Q: What sequence folds into this?
């Protein structure tokens, strides 16, 4: 497999001639590169009265590898051939390097350029590319590939340091200027200017060239290999048009991060997203979107200052949001468009924050207040719309969410989290922080860690006022659609990509799901729907560690002779009768280790078998801040979904 490396442009704020003089001082050896043992000139030719010089060197390099690998390959040093092509008139130095040792087994090719900054003649640019192709190397190809790229990365990092060292050495010797060689014609027509060069090179305003200073200021810390991936991805999208310009570097980097810096995977993801943006005219949404009046009045969300890291902060008071009312008033598509408008605003605000704080801000912070969250928020069409929104945002706005603060989470929240978390990218899920108590501001590890005290909104106990609406019920006379049927609330296996499992129970039979817990204060959540006939549901706990039985005899683990209720097991959620078409959600804080048992039973008095679909999940204690009390199961039947 061929490994490819491409560097961003490195800027030296010195004239080309001074940089070349510094570069020549690194030969035959230099202290910053101890692995270079010697560089012997084997050819050296001058042309055009000394303005052009072609130099060929044979460089002796120490092998930095574990003893075993050096023993396998049988050498302590390797040799490279380096060819330099210097043109002082065009102010360019092109360098090519190839390996001489093991040339039939390994191909290494490096190409570097020093050249005058195209818009600032007193500065010098540098870039490099390299390929590594290990064909057959004593059966240790993978190890050599990793070692080679690691060594190359370390060498690259030292490159600028070496030039800066020798420039300073020249200055100490009184050499601060080297005469520039120009043609007589150029000398007679080019005016001399003493204008002070701009602090930021105009090169960096051109989206086609990336330099190291731009990376530090606008993108953040990247490894040389990550920089290389960014440069390579940029080349795949460099032919934009005025109607559809190529993505900026922040966008490219977000898609790379979302795909673990796989260029091919990031390319595919970004191409799909760009096509989606074109089809839905997303680039015009900030200028064209008109917020519906009902959203203006009843949608409880808005932008609110920044968090402590400088991220734009968006607050959503989900607990006071009338999901059904908004959905029936404006429709699912309009809520999606509202979300996309918010995301586009977020991209704009991140760029503004980067300039404001003088550091890269490439994601935003979301604070979700769940005070008031109840079972009505689990209305199935609303959850379906939420899942569609999550899927769209995950595909087209990756790595824009820096942190999610979930505050005042009530007991019913783990149920909603169970449903939606499966559809959120694992990396994004890791950014969620949960605060369960009513005082999320002053509690230990409270939100004051993440938001300045004077910016915490008043409804959370802070002193800062906001323009965010409180939400509330949308009047029914504003409803435009009655097409969202209440019985869409039914759960089916295909609705959740096979997450739900089916169980059939004959009268008198029961089914038990055993959950072993080794994480005290984790939260067990469940969500099930009875499809046919009545079903009894209860939750038990025993300190014993039980295993799920593989048989289908529909008997209880507590029927064994060594179990006695109240002695070595107990019922922690009282039995409830669940009727057909009722959806049941609930959660329980597992304060103890041992085994928790979810039990469903078809009463003996039923005239036929019962059917149900169930799903459960565990929210780890590490992901949940604050305490939860035991809560009884909640119902979301058709009748209860209606107001």
A:
């Amino acid at each position: 497999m061929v490994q490819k490396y491409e560097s961003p442009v490195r800027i030296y704020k010195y004239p080309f001639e001074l940089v070349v003089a510094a570069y020549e001082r690194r030969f035959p050896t230099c202290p910053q590169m101890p692995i270079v043992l010697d560089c012997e000139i084997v050819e050296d030719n001058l042309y055009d009265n000394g303005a052009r010089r072609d130099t060929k060197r044979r460089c002796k390099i120490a092998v930095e590898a574990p003893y075993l690998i050096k023993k396998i390959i049988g050498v302590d040093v390797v040799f490279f051939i380096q060819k330099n092509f210097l043109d002082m008139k065009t102010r360019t130095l092109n360098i090519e390097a190839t390996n001489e040792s093991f040339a039939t087994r390994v191909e290494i090719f490096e190409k570097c350029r020093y050249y005058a900054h195209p818009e600032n003649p007193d500065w010098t640019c540098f870039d490099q590319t390299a390929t590594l192709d290990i064909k057959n190397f004593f059966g240790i190809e993978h190890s050599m590939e990793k070692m080679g790229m690691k060594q190359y990365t370390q060498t690259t990092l030292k490159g600028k340091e070496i030039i800066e060292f020798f420039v300073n050495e020249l200055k100490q010797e009184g050499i601060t200027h080297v005469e520039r060689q120009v043609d007589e014609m150029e000398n007679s027509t080019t005016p001399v200017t003493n204008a002070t060069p701009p602090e930021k090179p105009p090169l960096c305003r051109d989206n086609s060239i990336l330099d190291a200073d731009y990376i530090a200021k606008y993108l953040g810390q990247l490894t040389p290999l990550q920089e290389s991936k960014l440069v390579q991805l940029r080349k795949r999208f460099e032919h934009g048009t005025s109607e559809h310009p190529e993505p900026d570097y922040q966008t490219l980097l977000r898609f790379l991060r979302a795909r673990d810096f796989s260029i091919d995977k990031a390319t595919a993801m970004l191409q799909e997203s760009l096509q989606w943006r074109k089809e839905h005219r997303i680039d015009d949404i900030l200028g064209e979107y008109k917020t519906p009046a009902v959203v203006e009045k009843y949608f409880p969300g808005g932008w609110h200052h920044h968090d402590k890291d400088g991220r734009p902060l968006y607050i959503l008071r989900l607990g006071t949001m009338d999901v059904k009312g908004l959905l029936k008033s404006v429709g699912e598509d309009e809520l999606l468009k509202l979300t996309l408008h918010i995301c586009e605003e977020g991209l704009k605000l991140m760029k503004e924050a980067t300039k404001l704080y003088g550091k890269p801000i490439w994601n935003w912070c979301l604070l979700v207040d769940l005070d008031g969250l109840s079972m009505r928020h689990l209305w199935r069409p609303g959850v379906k719309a939420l899942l569609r929104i999550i899927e769209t945002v995950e595909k087209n706005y990756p790595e824009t969410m820096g942190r999610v603060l979930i505050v005042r989470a009530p007991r019913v929240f783990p149920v909603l989290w169970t449903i939606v978390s499966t559809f959120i990218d694992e990396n994004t899920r890791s950014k969620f922080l949960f605060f369960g108590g009513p005082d999320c501001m002053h509690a230990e590890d409270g939100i004051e860690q993440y938001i300045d005290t004077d910016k915490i909104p008043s409804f959370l106990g802070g002193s800062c006022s906001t323009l965010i609406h409180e939400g509330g019920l949308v009047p029914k006379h504003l409803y435009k659609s009655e097409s969202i049927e209440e019985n869409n609330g039914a759960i089916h296996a295909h609705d959740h990509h096979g997450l739900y499992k089916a169980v059939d129970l004959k009268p008198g039979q029961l089914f038990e799901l055993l959950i072993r817990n080794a994480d005290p204060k984790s939260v067990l959540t469940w969500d099930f729907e009875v499809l046919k006939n009545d079903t009894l549901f209860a939750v038990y706990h025993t300190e014993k560690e039980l295993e799920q039985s593989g048989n289908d005899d529909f008997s209880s683990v507590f029927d064994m002779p060594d179990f006695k209720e109240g002695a070595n097991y107990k019922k922690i959620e009282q039995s409830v009768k669940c009727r057909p078409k009722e959806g049941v959600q609930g959660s329980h804080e597992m304060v103890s280790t041992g085994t928790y048992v979810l039990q469903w039973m078809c009463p003996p008095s039923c005239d036929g078998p019962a059917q149900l679909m169930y799903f459960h999940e565990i929210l780890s204690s590490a992901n949940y801040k604050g305490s939860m009390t035991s809560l009884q199961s909640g119902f979301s039947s058709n009748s209860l979904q209606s107001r």
User: Anything to note?
Assistant: DSSP finds 16 helices and 22 strands in the chain. The longest strand covers residues 36-47. The chain has a mean pLDDT of 84.
